[in-house]
Write a structure and sequence with these properties.
Blueprint: E1 2-6, H1 13-21, H2 29-34, E2 41-46, E3 52-57, H3 65-72, E4 77-83, H4 90-101, E5 107-112, H5 119-133, E6 143-145, H6 154-167, E7 178-187, E8 191-200, E9 202-204, E10 208-212, E11 216-225, E12 228-230, E13 232-234, E14 238-244, E15 258-260, E16 268-277, E17 289-295, E18 298-306, E19 317-328, E20 335-339, E21 346-354, H7 365-374, H8 379-389, E22 394-395, H9 396-402, H10 407-417, E23 420-423, E24 428-431, H11 433-453, E25 460-461, H12 462-468, H13 475-482, H14 485-488, E26 491-494, E27 497-500, H15 509-522, H16 533-540, H17 544-556, E28 560-564, E29 567-570, H18 571-587, H19 595-602, H20 606-618, E30 622-625, E31 628-631
Parallel strand pairs: 1-3, 1-4, 4-5, 5-6
Antiparallel strand pairs: 2-3, 7-8, 7-15, 8-14, 9-13, 10-11, 10-15, 11-12, 11-14, 16-19, 16-21, 17-18, 17-20, 18-19, 20-21, 22-24, 23-24, 25-27, 26-27, 28-29, 30-31
């Protein structure tokens, strides 16, 4: 069990920890000289049943409240220290507010320095404590009077903490591993060591881990938990990791970083959160309000954007968006604290609910429903609500990553909810039953409307249909959805177009005769350099305007594509050219496509080769960087021949 001290400066926190454990938490020279705690101190008390009480001694001075926040994150029980001579002081109130904001639910209050006051003063301060804690999570906490100088009450407090440790429920280890780094140092003969509290999951010696947000890959050489060498550390342990890996150095890792399971490395700078603004705060939270965000051991500048109205008033709780100055590693459900930019006062805090918050459309009804779903702690209930509320399909692996869920937990959630899942090369996306029914209906209705408005066209552009049908899917998932049993018998994919299976587009008899004469001119050995409209008209003695009209009709039917003005290629040829381009890219050492080898393979001349490549650019098939191009694999079938 991890015990975290809290309280005003010089109220005896360090002396109390020393009396309880025999260990001096002040380790810095300046701390010894000044007689106050500046950085986090640590002490351990072995128990008879092989358990260990770990103590985090935090500074009480207002200048070091940010360090107090780092120490309070992840503790099991708070030990609020109030000196009997001073009574409740400013940092007492601020630390109490921080413990509330961080969701601390187990607590004991130590009334120290009782050897220095009268019985009347002791009763007065006890009443004072009851008054200041009555509206907090410490309202029912026991107050134990102690003296570190005489030892009075120390045994009783120690026994109480030991009883709390025995009754503490073991933390779940089902999540993926995360450790919040609060110290980084090197030891001779050992190497780089980082310390912190394991927030979730399990870590073993020799495990691969990632330091996030810098993204440094490492391996656990050895580890200590509760100041003892172990092979495994679990959620709730105070842990020291000896890390090894390329690029690892003391100055490359900082307090506030996280050591995580590599699958969790996905830093964020824009988050949605549930924020409670303290009633003691004198200012409204207005759009783009500047603050300091404290999350775990991290401290970073941020701006707050209210999402429920234009302001957040003191004493109120509402959804907000936090835009950070630099990325952090976090998880949904993590607690945070906000302080003013001058670091003089604690303003509020709350819980993170979405690590991938959108910059636009933040206040729509759909987005409000999504945030309500994300606020649910239970992952199964949260995902179920998201699938019903979302206008987009949910990336299942991203959902699990942002909540630090294990693979087993995610699979259990999927099995319980039985959503429709599409597995593409880069993601698994899920759609709920209600959303899928809306999707199927929307596809059919859109195509029916399109065919009614444009009966002479082949079908609706696949990308255009994808973007207007909800829930929105990625291009690859959309193509898979159209082939689902609920749609495959009703719609047809014709390369870049989608049509109803019942829709048939036919040329008139006159156009059929013309097409029979024109088609051979576009195929065969000349397929990569077919004649233009005027050349076809001249060769077949057909008016140029008639040839153009015929080829425009053939384009709508999916038989040809207009590469450039009046320059038409058979659809089969366009598909073949794209496969040739992909083959060239695949054999290039650096994986790029350039015009010269493409021109040589087609034997069509540089000008025509450039026109063809620019056609692919316009359709989003290729990404261009200067003279280099790279094909987007998901569009390789975009010009597949009509089926």
């Amino acid at each position: 069990m991890i015990v975290g001290t809290a309280g005003h400066v010089d109220h005896g926190k360090t002396s109390l920890v020393r009396a309880l454990t025999g260990v001096d938490g002040d380790r810095l020279k300046e701390e010894k000289v000044r007689g106050i705690t500046i950085d986090l101190g640590f002490a351990y008390l072995p128990l008879a049943d092989d358990q260990i009480l770990g103590f985090i001694d935090v500074p009480g001075h207002e200048r070091f409240v940010h360090t107090m926040v780092a120490g309070a994150a992840g503790i099991d029980i708070a030990l609020l220290v109030v000196a009997a001579d001073d009574g409740v002081m400013p940092q007492t109130r601020e630390h109490l507010a921080i413990l509330d904001l961080l969701g601390t639910r187990r607590s004991v209050i130590a009334l120290t320095k009782i050897d220095m006051v009268t019985a009347e003063r002791l009763a007065e301060v006890t009443a004072q404590i009851r008054d200041v804690t009555k509206a907090s999570a410490l309202a029912t906490a026991d107050i134990l009077p102690v003296s570190s100088a005489t030892g009075d009450g120390i045994d009783a407090l120690r026994e109480r903490l030991m009883a709390e440790a025995r009754s503490l429920e073991e933390r779940s280890h089902a999540g993926r591993f995360r450790l919040a780094v609060d110290r980084v140092f090197t030891l001779p003969g050992i190497g780089l060591v980082v310390t912190g509290i394991v927030l979730s999951g399990v870590v073993h010696v020799r495990d691969a881990v990632t330091v996030s947000p810098p993204g440094l890959n490492a391996r656990v050489r050895s580890l200590h938990a509760q100041n003892r060498p172990v092979e495994t550390a679990r959620a709730g342990d105070r842990c020291a990791l000896n890390l090894t890996g390329d690029g690892l150095a003391k100055d490359a890792i900082h307090r506030g970083d996280m050591v995580v399971d590599p699958l969790l490395h996905a830093p964020t700078m824009r988050l949605d959160a549930r924020l409670h603004l303290l009633a003691s705060e004198s200012k409204l939270i207005e759009p783009w309000f500047a603050v300091r965000l404290h999350h775990g051991a991290a401290e970073v500048g941020a701006h707050v954007v209210p999402l429920e109205g234009q302001h957040l008033r003191p004493g109120r709780t509402a959804d907000v968006q936090l835009v950070l100055d630099r990325p952090i590693a976090a998880a949904v459900g993590d607690r945070f604290v906000l302080r003013d930019v001058s670091a003089r006062r604690t303003m509020g805090g709350g819980q993170l609910i979405d690590l991938r918050a959108p910059e636009r459309h933040r206040r729509t009804p759909v987005r409000e429903a999504e945030r309500a779903a994300m606020r649910l702690d239970d992952p199964e209930r949260s995902l179920a609500a998201l699938l019903d509320a979302s206008s987009t399909a949910r990336d299942l692996d991203a959902f699990a990553r942002d909540r630090a869920l294990s693979a087993a937990t995610l699979e259990a959630v999927i099995a319980s909810l039985s959503p429709l899942v599409f597995e593409t090369g880069d993601a698994r996306v899920a759609i709920g039953a209600m959303s899928w029914a809306h999707f199927v209906t929307a596809v059919i209705e859109r195509l029916e409307g399109f065919h009614t408005a444009y009966p002479d066209r082949q079908g609706m552009a696949r990308e255009g249909l994808r973007k207007v049908v909800k829930p929105e899917l990625s291009p690859s998932a959309f193509a898979m959805a159209l082939q689902h049993a609920d749609l495959s018998g009703r719609v047809r994919l014709d390369g870049a177009f989608v049509r109803l299976a019942s829709h048939v587009m036919q040329l008139s008899p006159a156009h059929e005769r013309q097409w029979a004469a024109v088609a051979p001119l576009l195929g065969g050995e000349a397929r990569f350099r077919p004649p233009r409209v005027r050349d076809i008209g001249r060769e077949l003695s057909i008016p140029e305007a008639d040839v153009r009209q015929l080829l425009k009709l053939a384009t709508r039917m999916g038989d040809v594509d207009e590469i450039s003005h009046d320059h038409f290629f058979l659809r089969t040829t366009v598909h073949e050219m794209l496969q040739i381009a992909a083959d060239i890219e695949a054999t290039d050492v650096e994986g790029w496509l350039t015009a010269a080898p493409f021109r040589d393979r087609l034997d069509c001349g540089r000008k025509v080769a450039i026109l063809i490549l620019e056609f692919f650019d316009r359709h989003g098939v290729m990404l261009k960087r200067g003279t280099l191009r790279r094909i987007q694999p998901r569009y390789l079938d975009l010009f597949a021949p009509t089926t």
